[in-house]
Design goal:
54% of the residues lie in helices and 11% in strands. It has 6 helices and 3 strands; from the N terminus they run βααβααβαα.
Length: 153
């Protein structure tokens, strides 16, 4: 089953830690006001122009074997190899936050606003990670509704 998933911006909260990690900033420290202002400005820009969207498709174990094997460029031994073969349900998904974010980041770098461009890039990455979490949760909820998996929440 392939499903296009609209992700509401309200679902993309609580990713400050990811922003700080992407910037190699300490999570617990008091940050300089200028950095806090850049985080706020980049986050505001993200929420103004992001267009979060996902696609999810369930996949059989046999089909996942083919995807996992790839075209011979993947690592031969990974932790995933021992996990996915035991899965009752598998799905592939991808998320995007839209092209406008990338354009804005490029624009900031072209204007030599490197700090803000870098911060927006970190916010976009953390926001995209949060989109992935939302899709994972939707998949879990879908399985739970079908009583195929205990809820993880």
């Amino acid at each position: 089953m392939r499903k296009i998933i609209t992700i509401r911006k309200e679902e993309l909260t609580s990713f400050r830690e990811g922003i700080l990690e992407n910037q190699s900033l300490p999570k617990q420290a008091t940050l300089p006001q200028r950095i806090e202002e850049m985080i706020q400005q980049a986050t505001k820009t993200f929420f103004e122009i992001a267009e979060p969207l996902g696609i999810m498709e369930t996949i059989s174990l046999d089909d996942f074997d083919i995807v996992y094997d790839g075209e011979g460029f993947n690592e031969t031994i990974t932790p995933l190899e021992s996990i996915y073969t035991q899965a009752d349900n598998l799905a592939l998904f991808a998320v995007t936050i839209g092209a406008e974010i990338t354009g804005r980041i490029d624009e900031l770098f072209e204007k030599k606003e490197f700090a803000l461009g870098s911060m927006l890039d970190s916010v976009a990455s953390a926001g995209t990670d949060r989109c992935a979490y939302v899709i994972e949760k939707r998949f879990n909820d879908m399985l739970f509704e079908k009583k195929e998996l205990p809820s993880l929440t």
